[in-house]
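Hi V.,

Quick status before I head out on leave. The structure for the redesign project is tokenized and pasted below; the design run finished overnight.
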């Protein structure tokens, strides 16, 4: 048996976390890790005690035909990155790495070339996380250096989810 890399180990966990998502478009999962210890996890879902899109049977953004990357105020969900950050203390996030995986709910397959939205990138920057590792396939991933987002204001304007 071949031992998987640490990155894919944590990405597998993020992919499992994504299965808790209640979003009808894309199921994201996030895991924050520092010094090989899982600090927190997060998935997409409505704020506590509010109905999820999966409970209602529809996505408002989809119903209104809002394109990907636009009008997030119309989304019921708190994104996976935000939920993971909310669940962790800032002290434990300083210098940490976030791992993200996403399942396309239409196909049930891993979503390719994922990225954090502008709002979540701002949260990640302020949290003190140093790196974000995005899963592209069961074995391939890319790593974003959060400091690069700070230096490149254009990165905060790219389309995410």
């Amino acid at each position: 048996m071949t031992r998987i890399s640490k990155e894919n180990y944590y990405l597998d966990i993020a992919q499992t976390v994504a299965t808790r998502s209640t979003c009808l478009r894309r199921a994201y999962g996030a895991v924050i890790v520092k010094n090989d210890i899982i600090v927190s996890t997060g998935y997409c879902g409505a704020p506590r005690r509010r109905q999820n899109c999966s409970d209602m049977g529809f996505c408002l953004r989809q119903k209104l035909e809002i394109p990907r990357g636009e009008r997030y105020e119309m989304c019921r969900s708190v994104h996976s990155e935000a939920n993971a950050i909310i669940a962790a203390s800032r002290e434990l996030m300083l210098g940490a790495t976030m791992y993200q995986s996403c399942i396309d709910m239409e196909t049930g397959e891993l979503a390719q070339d994922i990225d954090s939205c502008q709002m979540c990138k701002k949260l990640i920057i302020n949290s003190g996380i140093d790196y974000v590792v995005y899963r592209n396939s069961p074995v391939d991933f890319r790593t974003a250096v959060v400091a690069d987002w700070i230096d490149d204001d254009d990165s905060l304007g790219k389309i995410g989810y």
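Above is the designed sequence. The first strand starts at residue 26 and ends at 34.

G. will cover questions while I'm gone.

Best,
W.
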